[in-house]
Amino acid sequence: MEKNLTKLENILGVSFIDKDILKQALVHRSYLNEHKNFVLDQNERLEFLGDAVLELAVTDYLFHNFKEAEGVLTNWRSSLVNREQLAQAAEDLGLHDWLYMSRGEAKDDNKKARSYILANTFEAVIGAIYLDQGYAEADKFIKEHLIVGLEKIIVNKSYIDAKTNFQEKAQEVLGITPHYQVLSEEGPDHNKQFVVGIYLDKDLVAKGEGYSKQEAQTSAAHNALELKKWNS
After folding, report:
1. Among the options 51, 105, 132, 139, which is catalytic?
2. Fewer CB atoms inside 10 Å of the end CB: C or N, the chain?
3. What's the Cα-to-Cα distance from 100 to each of 58, 103, 193, rounded to whole Å?
4. Catalytic residue among 47, 105, 123, 139
5. Domain map (residue ranges) of the chain
6. What is the pLDDT of residue 100?
């Protein structure tokens, strides 16, 4: 089904010279399985490009606007460009309604899968803006739709790494350093999902899921920190 991308351009605040670049940023690989004659490729190459542009733009902003040490800036950057933040930015723009996906993928209500697709699409849109409009326009878009959330991250201290936080609590309370173990992994290589357990000695404390081992470990640490014993 053809989509009126002019309306999306108004939402994004960007008028594309080549509309097909924007369209490609919205094409999930599943769509091509059902539409063999679709003339455009899926959005993963644009996502790859957008990821690099995003990292540079956020790094440049932090470097020129804050005097904190490198470690602090790294934590702030990681909190800004993580999957949850990117997915929320995409959700705020309503990108899900503009995606080209297979019927099965469009009906899937798995929140983690939806978050993963939205985050990737947000990066692909950045890549498309960079290709069509140049770095300055991509940088402006990133500031308006992502970096605007930095103040909340700093105030809420959500930049503190969950794994580090849990390790400090576990060592303080029990004198034990937690370790992680992959409990299961499934899916194709390009979309593999991991379940990781966080352990104190031989005791399983919590589980977490993610599309990388690191993401699953962080999720497990978040879940462990939610337990009452660490908040009493």
Report:
1. 51
2. N
3. 28, 9, 22
4. 123
5. 8-156, 162-230
6. 92
pLDDT digits (tens, 9 = 90+) for 33-86: 888 888 899 999 999 999 999 999 999 999 999 999 998 899 899 889 988 899
HSE, side-chain direction, 13 A CA sphere, residue 129: 25
Query: Which amino acid, 28?
Result: H
Q: Name which CATH class applies to 8-156.
A: mainly alpha
Residue 123 annotated among the catalytic residues of the structure = yes
How high is the pLDDT of residue 83?
Answer: 86
Q: Is 109 a catalytic site residue? A: no
Q: Give me the residues of the chain with pLDDT under 70, please.
A: 1-2, 106-110, 228-232
Distance of alpha carbon 213 from alpha carbon 196, whole angstroms? 7
Q: How far is CA 53 from CA 75, 138, 231, in A?
A: 18, 8, 39
CATH class of the domain defined by 162-230: alpha beta
Sequence-distant (≥ 6) Cβ neighbours of residue 5 within 8 angstroms: 16, 19, 22, 23, 98
